[in-house]
Design brief:
The complex is a heterodimer of chains A (167) and B (145). With 167 residues, chain A is mostly beta strands. Chain A has one domain: Roll (Pnp Oxidase, Chain A), CATH 2.30.110. Chain B has a 5-stranded mixed sheet with strand order 1-5-4-3-2. The radius of gyration of chain B is 16 Å and the shape is globular. Classes of the chains: A mainly beta (167), B alpha+beta (145). Strand 9 of chain A pairs parallel with strand 6 of chain B.
């Protein structure tokens, strides 16, 4: 396996990232009266007690700045039934919420219907890391459905209920 | 007489600070600061000149439009003045690369000034921008490249 002792080039890092399989989330928040959101696969659980999670959002995203003005956001873990949702939120449509079914969480953040799981979280710390901000969040509300999660790998989406086991 | 001079300098500082920091009237700083004014936060830097300082006051007030600065203590001794201050404002527009948080924050600091005649030629300012960022819940990482 080739090693890169100094700074690996960007193309190598992109290939590295393609080797890491994730779920898909849509992060949403209220910007005043307007809902905003974007597709995020840089989500991770940090601790169960207290329930703490993190997401990472690019500064150039149209949703980024409103995540500094709001105390809460929602993390919608997408299901296999939401290919339409991920395509909308991965793009730059002027109103990503047009025709979307969602309900406000306890603190108002948009909880998207048909999701595999949903959380509304309180933003605790914002780590400014060059091109991105990492948001460290305390989970305040969580809901889980029976819908299988969407899986994302190397730029494609897969059915999280149809993965052959290795064992 | 030293006492009236100290008092005049104290009044001049209060008047110029109130006009500039609380009302954005940076022209009032010309009554207090010398054209050769330098504002330093570290010994190993050039610091700000009068024009750059005025611009930074305007930029700060643009980010915190309701900014109010209070002089908590002011001690004048001959050509030196020491001011302990705090500022409170609501973060309404981007500042130090941070998008608006709409949060009210308070920062504290101290300024040591040296007069030549009736104008300040040099100020050493101690305040911690990281304390402001911490109050806003912001942590900067990965700045070492």
């Amino acid at each position: 396996m080739a090693t890169h002792p100094v700074a690996p080039d960007t193309d190598v890092m992109k290939q590295v990232n393609r080797k890491f399989v994730t779920g898909v989330t849509v992060v949403t928040a209220m910007d005043g009266d307007s809902p905003r959101g974007l597709a995020v696969n840089a989500y991770s659980n940090i601790s169960l007690d207290p329930p703490t999670v993190m997401i990472c959002v690019q500064r150039t995203s149209s949703t980024h700045d409103c995540l500094y003005a709001t105390d809460h956001l929602a993390i919608n873990i997408l299901s296999t039934e939401q290919l339409d949702v991920v395509n909308t939120f991965a793009g730059k449509a002027p109103d990503k919420f047009a025709g979307l079914n969602w309900t406000p969480g306890p603190n108002g953040s948009p909880m998207i219907e048909r999701s595999s799981a949903q959380m509304e979280v309180e933003i605790r710390e914002r780590l400014q890391a060059n091109t991105h901000t990492v948001f460290i969040c305390r989970v305040r509300h969580a809901a889980v459905s029976d819908r299988a999660p969407m899986v994302y790998a190397a730029g494609q989406f897969f059915d999280g209920a149809a993965l052959p086991g290795l064992g | 007489m030293a006492v009236p001079d100290d008092d005049a300098r104290r009044k001049a500082i209060r008047a110029a600070w109130e006009a500039a920091w609380d009302r954005g009237e940076v022209g009032a700083l010309d009554d207090l600061l010398s054209p050769s004014y330098r504002r330093l936060t570290r010994h190993d830097e050039e610091g700000q000149d009068l024009t750059a300082f005025k611009a930074s006051v305007i930029a700060t007030r643009a980010a915190f439009p309701d900014l109010v600065t209070t002089i908590d203590d002011i001690v004048v001794d001959g050509d030196r003045a020491a001011v302990r201050w705090h500022s409170v404002g609501t973060h309404q527009h981007g500042f130090l690369g941070v998008p608006p948080t709409r949060k009210e924050v308070e920062v504290t600091g101290a300024t040591f000034a040296r007069f030549e005649g009736d104008r300040i030629v040099e100020e050493f300012v101690t305040w911690d921008p990281r304390a402001l960022l911490a109050a806003l819940g912001i942590i900067s990482v990965g700045q070492d490249q």
